[in-house]
């Protein structure tokens, strides 16, 4: 019987990921509801769960397939050890079962609401997660397809899915916000992959950091983050006003400082440690993600 701690580690449910994941699946609904009372509707909550399951399933699948790379990465050796104790077959089976359940839940909501986008977005996210990890495609090793696919599956598609379940078709304002959130995730993914450089290079995964080096990859991350902040600022200001836009840009922009710090001294000898990045910098990410949820809910709080 696998230990609970091993399963939590394989699904990457250590601090602060659970809070961050809940924000990712909640953003769409938060920007959809006209009042806070609309948020806990069953269809919306089920759709949020259907979008959450592929996140953790993808992490487990990746852990099972990247045992060697994780074993060579400081801060991820415990993931490799957990995968070894649980076993690749059990971990992969668990991940595929979670993905299947996600599609089933989303399909049920789509049929109930007559909104097929709910099921299509979850199904597409699951497909991309599989293509990210599995040969012969394995998007993880295909340069910029790596962060772009994660920006889609961890941001844009879940936002669209839960928004559709809660309200229907997003407006142009909301599309700007979702595009900004997606680019935020692209920048974060590039930053998060920096400590994996030696291990990814050793196993032949041609991630952007491997292909372009730390400095150029971080320049791309900074450019993506800057574009994200512009889109977020424009979308939030258009929908909620200037003051909320400033709050969002400041809180989400704080993470850019970490990218710039790495950029000023990025090289193989000074690669950051995954645990330090997770416990310190990702706390800033968590706060920014919570603010992205709070802004629309605060606006909706004044409605009956």
From TrEMBL:
It is a multi-pass membrane protein. Pfam families: UbiA. The chain crosses the membrane at residues 19-37, 43-65, 86-111, 117-134, 146-168, 174-194, 214-236, 242-260, 281-301. The keyword Transmembrane applies. It is found in: Membrane. Keywords: Membrane, Transmembrane, Transmembrane helix. This is 4-hydroxybenzoate polyprenyltransferase. It comes from Pseudonocardia eucalypti.
């Amino acid at each position: 019987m696998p230990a609970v701690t091993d399963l939590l580690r394989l699904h990457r449910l250590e601090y602060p990921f659970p809070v961050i994941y809940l924000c990712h699946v909640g953003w769409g609904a938060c920007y959809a509801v006209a009042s806070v009372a609309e948020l806990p509707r069953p269809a919306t909550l089920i759709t949020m769960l259907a979008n959450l399951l592929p996140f953790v399933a993808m992490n487990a699948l990746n852990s099972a397939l990247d045992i060697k790379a994780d074993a060579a990465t400081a801060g991820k050796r415990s993931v490799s050890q957990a995968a070894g104790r649980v076993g690749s077959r059990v971990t992969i089976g668990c991940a595929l079962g979670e993905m299947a359940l996600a599609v089933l839940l989303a399909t049920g909501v789509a049929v109930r609401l007559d909104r097929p986008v709910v099921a299509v977005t979850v199904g597409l996210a699951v497909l991309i997660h599989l293509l990210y990890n599995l040969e012969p495609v394995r998007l993880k090793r295909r340069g910029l397809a790596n962060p772009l696919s994660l920006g889609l599956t961890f941001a844009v598609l879940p936002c669209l899915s839960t928004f559709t379940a809660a309200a229907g078709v997003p407006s142009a304002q909301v599309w700007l916000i979702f595009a900004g959130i997606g680019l935020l995730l692209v920048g974060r993914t590039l930053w998060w992959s920096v400590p994996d450089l030696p291990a990814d290079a050793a196993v032949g995964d041609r991630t952007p950091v491997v292909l372009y080096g730390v400095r150029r990859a971080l320049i791309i991350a900074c450019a993506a983050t800057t574009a994200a902040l512009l889109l977020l600022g424009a979308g939030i200001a258009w929908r909620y006003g200037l003051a909320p836009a400033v709050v969002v840009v400041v809180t989400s922009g704080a993470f850019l400082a970490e990218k710039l710090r790495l950029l000023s001294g990025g090289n193989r000898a000074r690669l950051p440690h995954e645990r330090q990045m997770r416990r310190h910098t990702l706390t800033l990410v968590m706060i920014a993600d919570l603010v992205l949820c709070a802004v629309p809910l605060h606006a909706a709080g004044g409605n009956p």
